[in-house]
Design the sequence.
């Protein structure tokens, strides 16, 4: 009796609301109008803010002040360039495919006493205030979309040495989704079993199915008497196990090539000096996952929210670890330079932007399942959860979109908003672009889709 | 109901498989800070499911290779299925930390039969299949205090059964499952009264398996952060050995806070304490200068946990750690857009550099309360070395603070700070509460008031003996009973 068949019994036994039991939406596709493939969304987070004068095309040199709304208000610019902006310059070749945003803020988060930008990851994608330190009040947009669009994976929640402290992806309160930080494990999960013969594979599947049946029964039997909170915890556990069963047993694994970065000698994915290798491998793998249609929703959290442990030694000898006498790691860490908003901060953030350019480029060079390129039907949302490294502010976040999601967004524009606009409107836009229409996302008082995204 | 933390999972697996030296084949997800302030298992999500499965499969394959270690019978002599049943009952009892219900045993036997008959596995592999199931079962992965039977009520509370008490005890003191002796005591009906519980507690506390737990408590208590290298590890070891030395000695809180004893390698001795190099990488007990060093706050670990810009200490972070962790003071988070400390400048001491932002009218309300705790420790640089000059200027070691209970304080130097802490009601009460949170893996609530009063009294009555504190916690209603959860079906 597999978990799938006993879902009704499970729901009755635990009294859990059907909203928590996901639809296996393998038959639900969202085809972009007039183009080949289904729609994809990739949400990337990177840490510790930017300098406005090295990010926005129109901010004067030396001006980094975020305290005021400043700048021209409510305008759209089509004639802009990143040239001369040392952080955002690597985006220049993709300018026509970008929507650069200036003015988005975490309004819901800011309305309650908060712990500065480092701790806002739990509110970044939910459109809600946080629930205590490092806890969300509702699902993040990726989990919401993943529930509607699940294929072999509900979503791919990935990280680059991230998620131990603050998490970006949440199924709901108390239910953080730990990102997969290990590209070797990710590769094995995406493309397992090419060297094993069919009979062994079948036996392995049968063995695993029997274990899943057993575990499912233990979970439902002993979940019956639990209190409300504990039952929710157990439901999250059950759901994760069912997702795993679906991935390992119900669906066929796909053949795939190991990315170049992983093909050599095995490296320690937890060491900060390998951050760039992990980043590259995770990027390559997420593109491969999308190309093989194993998921429609990917999140990539790059570094822990604080960036204390991130030392970008691959950038050159001046970026080598410079240990303090004590335990806050390193004076050459990402966090310290972000606070100083110095030259090294500029170089490090430029490196991140080069990774985004690489991702965009790779999507453009990868064919989609039914013609065209992956990029045609994708939207990449790149969002830094703080405005400046020094200020920790959650208003006017550095955000841009790359890709139109099959013609939904009108790209090649730089949108400036006159007052700090809540991120909720952007999250609504993402859902609509993914053909999962919603009126609001998170707190409904922040309204519907952000005007200007479509032209 | 919470899940086994990473540490608890790894220790439990070693005990369960009777292989104390076992290296875990899969990297389980790290623990994260919980509501108690201490690290616990996070919410169970996809990565956890993946690792739990991978770990279970690899561990059971390994166990099958040396089955005699965990198999209590000979299948040839006893008959295969009978031996499987015996294994399930005995091994299952330990893995689930209680006697299996008939249905649980039947489910595991069914798993065995599927393995033998449907999957065509040999006897050993079939046992491995059962083991793999157990290691993925919620009864193993969670601290399951709900039991299949209706719980024993005691007024509004639920009285924990002996199995549940045994598990709470061993997971608190050893971060692991009960050992055979504890299971035997339960089965013999010898873990019923608070006295019997205290007896076992003393045994567990005296055992070296409690060392790692002590170290884990104190390093989190002191907000310890070390570089992930050999030196950082050695600072953690220094703290752990000192804590063990205190607990094995007079056990007093005052000793923890004031003793000049420590445990050092040559590197630590030379680098921090100015002692001649002695025994290379091996640790030895030393007596530091009693006019310079006073317990954990002036040891290398705490002092070097908060440094910035080379060997400069970060007095705000040191002060905050003392205020929040040692005094249980509550501080709101800083507002956004707080300016960074000014860069290092010639002729400006570290203290002045950090005082600048606290003198801001907006910041003074909070910072005035705790910055002084850090300023007093400016006598010790970012590595923990004693110094008299900072950027060429003599160091001002005076400080003011406001204790949550004790009110305004002034200290001329670190010695006076430590003495004030030891005298204060704040420290002893906070230490008790922190140990309570660590032991119960939750924050104290209104229903714990009576327990906490009794615990504080016992602690004070023993002149703040930490061992008596732990025993008092273990014997308290908050440890031996639990409140029903909202919505729980009793």
Sequence:
């Amino acid at each position: 009796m597999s978990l799938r068949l006993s879902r009704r019994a499970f729901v009755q036994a635990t009294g859990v609301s059907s909203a928590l039991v996901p639809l296996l939406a393998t038959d639900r596709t969202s085809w972009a109008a007039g183009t080949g493939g289904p729609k994809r969304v990739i949400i990337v987070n990177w840490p510790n803010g930017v300098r406005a004068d090295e990010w926005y095309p129109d901010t004067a040199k030396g001006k980094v002040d975020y305290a005021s709304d400043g700048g021209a208000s409510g305008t759209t610019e089509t004639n802009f360039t990143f040239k001369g902006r040392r952080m955002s310059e690597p985006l220049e070749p993709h300018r026509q495919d970008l929507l650069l945003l200036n003015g988005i803020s975490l309004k819901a988060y800011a309305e309650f006493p908060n712990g500065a930008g480092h701790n806002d990851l739990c509110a970044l994608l939910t459109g809600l205030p946080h629930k205590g330190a490092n806890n969300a009040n509702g699902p993040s947009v990726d989990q919401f979309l993943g529930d509607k669009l699940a294929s072999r994976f509900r979503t791919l929640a990935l990280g680059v040495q991230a998620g131990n402290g603050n998490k970006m992806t949440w199924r709901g309160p108390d239910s953080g989704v730990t990102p997969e930080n290990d590209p070797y494990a990710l590769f094995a999960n995406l493309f397992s079993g090419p060297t094993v013969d069919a009979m062994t594979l079948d036996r392995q599947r049968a063995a695993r199915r029997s274990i899943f049946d057993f575990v499912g029964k233990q979970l439902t039997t002993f979940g019956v008497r639990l209190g409300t909170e504990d039952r929710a915890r157990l439901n999250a556990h059950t759901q994760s196990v069912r997702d795993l069963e679906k991935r390992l047993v119900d669906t066929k694994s796909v053949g795939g090539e190991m990315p170049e970065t992983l093909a050599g000698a095995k490296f320690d994915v937890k060491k900060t000096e390998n951050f760039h290798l992990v980043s590259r491998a995770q990027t390559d793998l997420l593109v491969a996952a999308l190309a093989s249609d194993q998921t429609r929703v990917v999140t990539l959290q790059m570094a822990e929210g604080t960036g204390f442990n991130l030392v970008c030694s691959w950038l050159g000898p001046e970026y080598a670890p410079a240990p303090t006498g004590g335990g806050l790691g390193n004076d050459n860490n990402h966090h310290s330079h972000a606070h100083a908003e110095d030259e090294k901060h500029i170089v490090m953030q430029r490196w991140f932007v080069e990774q985004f350019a690489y991702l965009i480029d790779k999507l453009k060079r990868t064919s989609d399942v039914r013609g065209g390129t992956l990029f045609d039907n994708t939207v990449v949302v790149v969002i830094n959860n703080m405005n400046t490294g020094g200020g920790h502010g959650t208003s006017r976040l550095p955000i841009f979109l790359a890709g139109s999601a099959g013609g939904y967004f009108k790209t090649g524009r730089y949108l400036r908003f006159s007052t700090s606009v809540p991120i909720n409107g952007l999250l609504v836009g993402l859902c609509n672009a993914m053909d999962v229409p919603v009126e609001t996302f998170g707190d409904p008082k922040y309204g519907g889709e952000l005007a200007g995204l479509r032209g | 109901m919470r899940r086994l933390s990473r540490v608890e999972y790894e220790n439990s697996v070693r005990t369960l498989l009777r292989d104390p030296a076992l290296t875990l084949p899969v990297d389980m997800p790290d623990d994260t800070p919980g509501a108690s302030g201490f690290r616990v298992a996070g919410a169970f999500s996809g990565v956890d499911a993946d690792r739990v499965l991978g770990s279970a499969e690899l561990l059971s394959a390994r166990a099958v290779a040396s089955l005699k270690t965990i198999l209590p019978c000979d299948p040839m002599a006893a008959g295969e299925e009978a031996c499987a049943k015996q294994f399930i009952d005995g091994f299952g009892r330990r893995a689930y930390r209680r006697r299996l219900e008939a249905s649980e045993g039947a489910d595991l036997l069914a798993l065995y039969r599927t393995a033998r008959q449907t999957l065509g596995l040999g006897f050993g592999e079939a046992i491995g299949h059962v083991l793999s199931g157990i290691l993925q079962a919620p009864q193993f992965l969670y601290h399951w205090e709900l039991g299949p039977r209706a719980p024993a009520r005691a007024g509004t509370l639920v009285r924990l059964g002996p199995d549940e008490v045994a598990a709470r005890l061993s997971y608190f003191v050893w971060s692991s499952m009960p050992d055979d002796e504890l299971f035997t005591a339960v089965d013999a009906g010898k873990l019923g009264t608070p006295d019997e519980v205290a007896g076992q507690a003393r045994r567990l506390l005296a055992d070296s398996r409690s060392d790692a737990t002590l170290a884990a408590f104190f390093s989190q208590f002191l907000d310890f952060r070390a570089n992930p290298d050999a030196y950082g590890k050695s600072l953690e070891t220094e703290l752990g050995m000192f804590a063990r030395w205190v607990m094995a000695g007079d056990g007093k809180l005052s000793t923890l806070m004031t003793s000049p004893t420590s445990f050092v390698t040559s590197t630590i001795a030379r680098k921090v304490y100015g002692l001649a190099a002695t025994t290379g990488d091996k640790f030895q007990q030393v007596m530091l200068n009693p006019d310079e060093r006073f317990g954990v706050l002036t040891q290398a670990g705490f002092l070097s946990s908060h440094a910035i810009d080379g060997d400069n200490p970060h007095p705000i972070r040191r002060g905050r750690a003392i205020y929040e962790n040692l005094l249980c003071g509550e501080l709101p988070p800083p507002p956004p857009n707080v300016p960074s400390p000014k860069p290092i400048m010639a002729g400006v001491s570290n203290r002045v550099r950090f005082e600048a932002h606290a003198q801001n009218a907006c910041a003074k309300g909070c910072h005035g309360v705790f910055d002084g705790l850090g300023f007093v420790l400016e006598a010790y640089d970012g590595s923990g070395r004693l110094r008299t000059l900072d950027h060429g200027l003599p160091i001002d070691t005076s400080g003011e603070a406001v204790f949550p209970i004790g009110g305004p304080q002034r200290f001329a130097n670190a010695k006076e700070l430590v003495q004030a802490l030891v005298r204060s009601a704040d420290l002893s009460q906070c230490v008790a509460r922190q140990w309570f949170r660590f032991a119960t893996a939750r924050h104290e609530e209104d229903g714990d008031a009576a327990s906490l009063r009794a615990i504080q009294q016992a602690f004070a009555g023993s002149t703040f003996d930490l061992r008596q504190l732990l025993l008092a916690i273990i014997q308290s209603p908050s440890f031996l009973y639990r409140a029903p959860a909202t919505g729980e079906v009793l």
